[in-house]
Amino acid sequence: MSRAKTSLAALAVVLSACTTSPDPTDQAEQDYARAVEAALQPATPEEVAAANRADPLTKANFWAKEHSKDPDNLEKALTFANALRGIGSDERAIEVLSQVLVVHPGDPDLLIALGKALSAQNDLVASARAFEQATRTAPERAEAWAALGTSLDKLDRHKDAQLAYTQALVLAPTRTSTLTNYGLSLALSGDLKGAEEKLRLAAAQPDADLRVTENLALILGLQGKYDEMAEISSRHAPQGVVEQNTKLLQDMIQPVRSWDALETELPAAKTAAPPVQKSKPKSSAPPVATSKPEETPPEASSTGLRLRRSGD
């Protein structure tokens, strides 16, 4: 073979090698693209199930990654916000929900979740506004009306709250939390008879819990129905606590307690009582209870004697 032919053959081998060997830069870019694509793949059902069984912080971190893969995904945003609230990060949950609400304006699930997070942050006006918007976009949702009622009650707008509860009960007549909170709203408005009616209905529901019966017992006691109060309370509390609560409530709702009554109940007070002017005890005498039930003395909180709102 001539020298010229040998040189041409060698050049052909070199050119062939150049065409078949991959460019390192292209290969790196392809590997990066594949890695990004794999990272953006949604978690498998098995991974989701495992994360939801994990501790709250692990669950929140998992859904943070899932949310970052698809920030506009409604379901992932709601799950992430719920996980954030599970670790006490309501402020971050509000941020996430507000951002997704721009993409899904008027979505009732987003608005209800946002209202609950705002309420937890004690931003009651914004919370009521979110729930009100939810009732406009989804008027068939009893949960939205009930949550609106709770927010309005917290704003001391009891009459407006009761209108919201009424609408919620039109849609879901046996919803225990709505009946309970409606009853408490009526009690705050001074309608103890109406409060008793709603709380009796709530207590009759299969899912009624201790808070419902406690509220009913207290409302009965405020009306002087001490025997019924004791009977209902005794289902869940020791007899000694029931008797203490009944006595405490009786003392609270008496118009004015006389010094003689206090002297009989508290023998230690006798030394502090003036011998003649018994209607004017000295400053060392025990405080006189008034008829205002909302001014619950410290002893009341230690025995559980207070109204308890149900969560929506």
Automatic annotation (TrEMBL):
Keywords from the named record: Repeat, TPR repeat
Keyword Protein transport: no
Classification via PROSITE patterns: PROKAR_LIPOPROTEIN, TPR
Keyword presence, Repeat: yes
Transmembrane segments: none
Domain of life the protein comes from: Bacteria
InterPro entries: O-mannosyl-transferase_TMTC, TPR-like_helical_dom_sf, TPR_rpt, UCP035836
PANTHER family attached to this UniProt entry: PROTEIN O-MANNOSYL-TRANSFERASE TMTC4, PTHR44227
Protein's recorded name: Uncharacterized protein
Organism placement in taxonomy: Bacteria, Pseudomonadati, Pseudomonadota, Alphaproteobacteria, Hyphomonadales
